[in-house]
Amino acid sequence: MKDKTDKTIKSDGIHPYMKSMTWKEYASRSEDILIIPIGSTEQHGPHLPLCVDTVLAEEFSLRIADQIHGVMAPPLNYGYKSKPFSGGGPLFPGTIDLNGLTLQLLVQDLIDEFVRDGFRRILLFNAHYENEPFIVEAMDLCSGKYGNELRLWCTNWWDPLSGNVMNLIFDEVPFPGWALEHAAITETSLMMYFKPELVRYPLPAPTEPVKPAFCYKYPVEQGDIPSTGVLSTAASSSAAKGKLIADHVIKNIVNYLEEKKK
Amino acid sequence: MKDKTDKTIKSDGIHPYMKSMTWKEYASRSEDILIIPIGSTEQHGPHLPLCVDTVLAEEFSLRIADQIHGVMAPPLNYGYKSKPFSGGGPLFPGTIDLNGLTLQLLVQDLIDEFVRDGFRRILLFNAHYENEPFIVEAMDLCSGKYGNELRLWCTNWWDPLSGNVMNLIFDEVPFPGWALEHAAITETSLMMYFKPELVRYPLPAPTEPVKPAFCYKYPVEQGDIPSTGVLSTAASSSAAKGKLIADHVIKNIVNYLEEKKK
Amino acid sequence: MKDKTDKTIKSDGIHPYMKSMTWKEYASRSEDILIIPIGSTEQHGPHLPLCVDTVLAEEFSLRIADQIHGVMAPPLNYGYKSKPFSGGGPLFPGTIDLNGLTLQLLVQDLIDEFVRDGFRRILLFNAHYENEPFIVEAMDLCSGKYGNELRLWCTNWWDPLSGNVMNLIFDEVPFPGWALEHAAITETSLMMYFKPELVRYPLPAPTEPVKPAFCYKYPVEQGDIPSTGVLSTAASSSAAKGKLIADHVIKNIVNYLEEKKK
Amino acid sequence: MKDKTDKTIKSDGIHPYMKSMTWKEYASRSEDILIIPIGSTEQHGPHLPLCVDTVLAEEFSLRIADQIHGVMAPPLNYGYKSKPFSGGGPLFPGTIDLNGLTLQLLVQDLIDEFVRDGFRRILLFNAHYENEPFIVEAMDLCSGKYGNELRLWCTNWWDPLSGNVMNLIFDEVPFPGWALEHAAITETSLMMYFKPELVRYPLPAPTEPVKPAFCYKYPVEQGDIPSTGVLSTAASSSAAKGKLIADHVIKNIVNYLEEKKK
Amino acid sequence: MKDKTDKTIKSDGIHPYMKSMTWKEYASRSEDILIIPIGSTEQHGPHLPLCVDTVLAEEFSLRIADQIHGVMAPPLNYGYKSKPFSGGGPLFPGTIDLNGLTLQLLVQDLIDEFVRDGFRRILLFNAHYENEPFIVEAMDLCSGKYGNELRLWCTNWWDPLSGNVMNLIFDEVPFPGWALEHAAITETSLMMYFKPELVRYPLPAPTEPVKPAFCYKYPVEQGDIPSTGVLSTAASSSAAKGKLIADHVIKNIVNYLEEKKK
Amino acid sequence: MKDKTDKTIKSDGIHPYMKSMTWKEYASRSEDILIIPIGSTEQHGPHLPLCVDTVLAEEFSLRIADQIHGVMAPPLNYGYKSKPFSGGGPLFPGTIDLNGLTLQLLVQDLIDEFVRDGFRRILLFNAHYENEPFIVEAMDLCSGKYGNELRLWCTNWWDPLSGNVMNLIFDEVPFPGWALEHAAITETSLMMYFKPELVRYPLPAPTEPVKPAFCYKYPVEQGDIPSTGVLSTAASSSAAKGKLIADHVIKNIVNYLEEKKK
To answer: Looking at residue E105, what is its pLDDT?
Structure first.
């Protein structure tokens, strides 16, 4: 069996794609770490597609799983509500917002089911800024049921980045904070590295980062943020920067998880 | 822009993949029919991967969307609980079961959001037997909110098959009913047609269909169904039969939807 | 004590009516099988009353309970949402539709409480087509709590019918499938047998079965189904056919349950 | 059509039993007041059956409906959790307790559906002490949706009793309060009047009323209340007292509702 | 450390205010009884502030905790929906009504958390008439989880009052029942005793008690109850009566709890 | 009327305390901005009490309300789950964690009720780091109901601080980020300013800030964070710094809201 989209199948046929496994192949892997990629369907400016967060969640998860002999579950393609100053907010078409409870129940059900299949170590790999609190609520409630039998982790792809790497990436403009790094240098660079065929050129002209209000405000209004949906400049993005981020993040997470396997 | 996995991009760049669109491309399509593929992650015997239902939901949706100038949303990769006599049930590893309420809320949120983006005609395309009642409950509750502004449809891929085509497919063995057609001739043939690289050979040896109990029984027990997870024989499957099914189903649904567009 | 409506009280005073027992009488029966009749309040054409499903659920349950020394709980008088092509749908006055979650919680609470009273074998006896998935969801969630301590079954009254009996019943017209057998030959015959005083004559004139759309469609529209609410012909119904069905179904379920008691 | 259990069918065929109506008969009645009897399945001492509350809810509702040309819906056979000092509490077998949310959702769904069928005046007639707050919560939430279009009432059968009548009933012992009037004089007398065949003799020997703690206490313990389940004496009960209560209550409610119809 | 509002700090620094403790001080108290004051924000006539119920819940709880070496948790400042004939109902501005489910979940979460901190005896001290059923539902569900490990009590401040004391308080007018004692003699007297600076003078002129309908009625209408929001007369209130009530109630509850500590 | 704890009553009797108002006083204020202080009950090291977040929420809200002629609602005394690296996490006694859904429903109910009372501008003033996502979810759902009729804001007390002020506060140690500023310089300084009598001395000895893991990890383990519960040093705290923060934050929020009133 060989999945053509599968870049990580080893010569012994071992690979991380749960989706492509038969149930018996999967059943033999329950001692491994399981990774659930959690993305979203959300506007990412005029140059990136709606699937950016899901693509990033999967591409990172795949590479991490590959290195730790892990299993990658099918991704969640929809996430929690985009907010104006971290994703552009609900007024953009193509931003498909789940209620918090829905995402929470979804993650709870998945954890319950993977535990039932024997997995004891699960990484929830998140690529959509607004998802985190509801993923963590699900983890908290599941952990209350399983206690020490089950180890759960949740990371965002940007969490493990060190200051050194950040300096290399933000060599031309200052880092605007992760909330505003939406459809901007890091996501654009990662897409140029992982899925160049999905990036439209020219990239948007350089802009100043959005200046967020200090408070959440409802109703959300047209004009609160730029009509492009880009919250900080994407100029100075490159596939090389994407690779730099990817390599660094993957290495750090792999090291962390390998430590946990000992 | 060109998504390498995209078999349906027209020369004018029009294609049905919502995931690969920018928000502006997507925004221009709200008069079109939107199709949400709903699959599952579920055991499908020793010869098929866990992603069968999601693959089928997507492959059918894609082709339908392509023909009706529709938009295909990202799929739901997880579905409602597999039952012993329609999918093998919860004891098989790799069968990841959502609670009914979770699936219902998920579908409700998606419908709400696509309506918010201006879509008025949505097809929920299902490929997992057990999903239907919870999809329909979500449709019912959303329809109560939007009334005649919103047209919703839900079909399973097997619903539009006529008796004539069924006779061609079940030329060697009798049709065991759709519940038992799990990992059997129709699903195997469709996978041989859509994703041959994911089918393992040799196919399972011919077997008699499982004889289901006349009632639901809990707890589910090992031994209620064959240890392979195949509920009816997959022998006599072929890519040609897969194509026959696909062409027939797609044509019928396309005709139905074209009628609705008038 | 003697309940005048009670046709099944034995000379030793043993009878299946939970409702008519004192708590002490009931407390002595927890080793027996408990049967919960689940009906609905739903249109059944111009010739049958709204209570058909509840009547059938109770009449079958009573006779089964009588033969297996079981206990019959009070029935659920309201059920899940009627659908156009299995019950006529929500536009008919008199069709009282519970939300799926409501029915599910109701069944969960009942199972929890009967378990608390010591019962370990419970049959959910259903007579309303659309109820099943939400009853089964409740069973699934409860079974997860009680495991092997608790045996749960759910059957519809039509599930145990064999092909032979079906041929005798559908001697004049073809069987249209259970979804369309609404207010038609089987339900009419059963009411003529169980509750002749509730059947209005003449029976509706013969009609062709409704031809259902292959997909669920919302909003439901007037005119999708016949204005009578009869989905298939009720002509050729008779009390004799009702008795035939009843005897056959009851015998099969009694045999099944007696087997389980061993 | 004539339902043998139907004591109230008029010569013109008009009667209050929704369950026995066809959908067309029911559809013609939406200008009338609809009454939903809400009972329970609960221990009622050694002399009364588990169905007391449901029987009382139905018998009162039927007579009221009969006098005001109203429609009586099928009863709710299960109610909210019995408490030790108002019904004996959860430790008695045969006391089947719904969660509050379940009862609330059930009543909400029913109100929604009867409104959808055109009814604008609905009486929730309760006979189980503990049900009230959750019925009222459902009324509150529904009323928020329908505003002045919908008139909702909820009464317990004991609410309309005047001091004069109470003095006649409690002629031998003092009135212990409604919470403790469980399986005691009023309920026993009503059952002797409405359903004498369901009362066991001799009635329990006279007892002092239970002396309730001033606070709710969990866990509920064996021994908190008498092992019979009778909270106040049932001695001095009689069918004549039952008739007295019934006539008085029915008259008061009928007068109240007739006033509302003007 | 000394909280200026703290009237009950002993010379050894022991006091009942959880809010003013550090976590270590609190951690040392888990063998003690924990009291959660549950109030509301609700209209209380022209002479009393919106915080009456919360003030009473806290003032009683504080004094009880002080005498039994207990711990008083921060109060719940909002409660369940005020009803016309027990609090004036929802039409009065300043009456802030939680849904029943919200209050229930809130109390469940608090009980769960105090149990997690090691407390095994918890008193829910209620001062808002309508709260009780939802507090008790929360207690019931939590007790189902913890069983005999956890002792829970719920009392209203008026529950422990004896007939003797009631006669002293209602020396000029008859007792109208607790539901109607809203913003009336008992609450006014207690506020005059506990928080005289929050009472406005002159007190409202004497009025007859409201005569409640015998049934719940929706929609709630202006004019159902007096426009002042006072349901029974507040005349004859006095700080002395307030002290009488307080001393009596506190003594009874303290005695009850001391008995439970043995 | 004069509440002794009320520092902000003007000579005309106008003050911001909703709790101390009668319903008529409150009813006259619905054109004003309403502020809901949202705190928590949570460990704050060996030197601060469990009520820090609630105290800060109230003290800020009071001063802001005072300056803008606003109304301050009673505070929420309990908040969402404390996390190890932003509040010390659930293992500390005294940290009382609500589920996310509970907090969300609570805030939704409050907003609904204040809207019903005529308020159209509501500020949710938060002082507990982990509360924000669930407050915002409630705002989002309510805003969907009320649209442009209702303006909602949510701010944390630390959101409006400018870099200049931050430099003055973190004059001796670097700013560790808001998550780690728990029981540290800012909270300690604010308590020294607002409630000096609740601060214990000596302050904890200087420590390095905790070094958080880059990911969320369950189960939470003892030893993940310092046993004191202090996440960054509280040394260099002072009442003067507290005043500096307070003045600055209050001024910024007042300016923002005054702008909105125009």
So the answer is: 98
The answer to whether D and E touch (≥3 CB pairs < 8 Å) is yes
CA distance C70 to chain D (A): 15
At C201, list the tokens.
């004559």
Across the interface, whether the CB atoms of F197 and E2 are under 8 A apart is answered: yes
Question: How far apart are the C-alpha atoms of E150 and E119, rounded to whole Å?
Answer: 8
Nearest in space to C155 (alpha carbons), one of C45, C22, C260, C21: C260
Spatial contact of B122 and B260, defined as CB atoms under 8 Å apart: no
Question: Which tokens hold the place of D161?
Answer: 């009793």
Q: How far apart are CA E19 and CA F49, in angstroms?
A: 6
Q: Which run of H or of E encompasses D81?
A: none
Chain C residues touching D101 at Cβ < 8 A: 105
* Cα–Cα distances in angstroms (integers) from residue C66 to residues C8, C18, C122, in the given order: 6, 12, 15
- Kindly report whether the peptide bond that precedes residue B74 is cis, defined as omega within 30 degrees of 0: no
Cα–Cα distance, B224 to B85 (Å, whole number): 9
Return the domain boundaries, chain E.
18-261
Determine the residue type at A213: A
Q: Is F158 on the interface with A (CB under 8 A)?
A: no
D132 token code pair:
């009230």
* ipTM (interface pTM): 0.96
Please state, in angstroms and rounded to a whole number, the distance separating the CA atoms of residues F152 and F143.
8
- Which architecture, in CATH terms, is B18-261? 3-Layer(aba) Sandwich (3.40)
* 3-state secondary structure at position C248: helix
Query: Please, what's the b/e burial string for D121-151 (b: 16 or more CB within 10 A of its CB; e: otherwise)?
Result: bbbbbbbbbbbbbbbbbbbbbbbeebeeebb
Over the stretch A135-185, which tens digit does the pLDDT of each residue have?
Answer: 999 999 999 999 999 999 999 999 999 999 999 999 999 999 999 999 999
Residues 6+ apart with CB under 8 A from C108: C138, C141, C142
Q: Which of A241, A181, A159, A172 is nearest to A44 (CA)?
A: A181
What is the C-alpha to C-alpha distance for residues E72 and E7, in angstroms, rounded to an integer?
Answer: 13
Among chain D residues, CA nearest to E131: D133
Chain-centroid distance of CA B201 in Å reads 23
> Which conformational region is residue D229 in: left (phi greater than 0), alpha (psi within -120 to 50 degrees), or beta?
left
Q: What are the structure tokens assigned to D27, written together?
A: 């559809």
Residues of A in contact with B102 (CB under 8 A): 102, 105-106, 109
Q: Which of D58, D130, D132, D181 is catalytic?
A: D130
Using CA atoms, how far residue C159 sits from A144, C68, C245, C253, in Å, is 41, 19, 11, 10
The rounded mean pLDDT for chain C is 94
Sign of CA dihedral E196, E198, E203, E209: negative
For the segment C57-111, what is each residue's pLDDT rounded down to a tens digit?
Answer: 999 999 999 999 999 999 999 999 999 999 999 999 999 999 999 999 999 999 9
Pairing state between β B151-156 and C97-98: unpaired
Q: Is the dihedral of CA A230, A232, A233, A237 positive or negative?
A: negative
Residue with tokens 């901007």: A184
How far is the C-alpha of D112 from the C-alpha of D87, rounded, in Å? Answer: 30
If one looks up domain A26-261 in CATH, what number appears?
A: 3.40.50.10310
> In angstroms, what separates the C-alpha of C112 from chain D's closest C-alpha?
9
Cα four-point dihedral sign D234, D239, D245, D246:
positive
pLDDT reported for residue D214: 84
**Chain F neighbors of E23, CB-CB under 8 A:** 43-46, 50, 92-95, 229
Three-state SS for A80?
A: strand
Interface test with F, best of A151, A152, A175, A216 (most F CBs within 10 A): A216
pLDDT average, residue stretch F102-130? 98
